[in-house]
Amino acid sequence: MSENHAGNDFWLDRHLMRAAFDRAARGYDAAAVLQHEVGKRLLERLELTTLQPARILDLGCGTGRALDALHKHYPEAGIVGADIAVGMLAAARRARGWFRRMPLVCADAMRLPFTAMSFDLIYCNLMLQWCNDLGRIFAELRRLLRPHALLLFTTFGPDTLRELRAAWREADGFNHVNRFIDMHDIGDALMRAGFVEPVMDVEYLTLTYTDVHLLMRDLKRIGAHNVTAGRAPGLTGRGRLRCMQSAYEKQRRDGRLPASYEVIYGTAWTPAYMPAAMLTPGEARAAMLERRGDGGRN
User: Residue 231 has what DSSP assignment?
Assistant: First the structure.
């Protein structure tokens, strides 16, 4: 299915995005300090639920760090990792030999190759901000989750990289930073997709740098390239780079340059009983078979 981005300067080119993450795979773990810390904090939230999932999907699994923790937390569960970049999955296999026994699937989150109601838990750390259509991705995740199953996710909110965005705004009129969705809009999208009991909260984290070029280097090392439709054509000239650097310097505090991140943590459940109107014919048949097979349990 083609994606229409006419008039949307923040539309993300998924082919360029995949290529960027492929290139970043080998050095990703060394640079992704914030991503790993946020993933660790998201996993801690599993302590708050009594859910005992039989099948788990780590969506946007990257180099596979969370797969280790999920396996330790749920040693009896079948765990699948999925990522859009084959380079990330290759890095996961190189780093952890036992992953060779764990399914790793290269797939686009917008069109996942799994049957309806395949999972009891979807863990999704800092991947949703790379999806153009939040309603569509949530509808796809709801399709994959069984009744009374859990979606556990993080994403970035609008204040993320606000300093970098402001500095570039003084340098030129092009996009250099992704657009990030407000927490309340995320909650609304979850409800429209058929999730219930969404709970979200926000945490503000700040990394500091001696030089703005080190920040930009870290972003490139984790694959966070500018792939928006409204990016500047061609290479950015030295003049605009100097202008951006000068603008960023206005925000220096105590000898360091801040890079702010608004991290949104979210949980949402699928209903214990899916309304028939929400199910495709194939899903309805699967639900009927599941109820017959489990003796009528929820």
Answer: B
pLDDT, residue 285, reads 56
Q: Which CATH architecture has domain 14-158+178-206+258-293?
A: 3-Layer(aba) Sandwich (3.40)
Scan for tokens 């951006």, then name that residue.
244
* Strand extents, DSSP E, 222-282: 257-269
- Ordered by start, the domain boundaries in the chain are 14-158+178-206+258-293
Round to whole Å and give the CA distance between 73 and 114. 23
pLDDT digits (tens, 9 = 90+) for 147-171: 999 999 999 999 999 999 999 999 8
Neighbours of 84 (CB within 10 A): 22
Helix (H, G, I), strand (E, B) or coil at 134: helix
**Residue 133 exposure: Cα atoms within 13 Å on the Cβ side:** 17
> How far are the Cα atoms of 36, 85, 225 from residue 26, in angstroms, in the given order?
15, 12, 16
Average pLDDT, the chain: 89
Residue 66's pLDDT band (boundaries 50, 70, 90)?
very high
Beta 104-106 vs 78-83: how paired, if at all? parallel
Supply the pLDDT for residue 94.
Answer: 86
Cα dihedral sign for 135, 160, 25, 64? negative
Pair 190, 24: CB distance under 8 Å: no
What DSSP designation does 276 have?
G
Least confident among 126-135, 238-247, 274-283: 274-283
Nearest Cα to Cα of residue 192 among 263, 150, 141, 154: 141
Does residue 154 contact residue 38 with C-beta atoms inside 8 Å?
A: yes
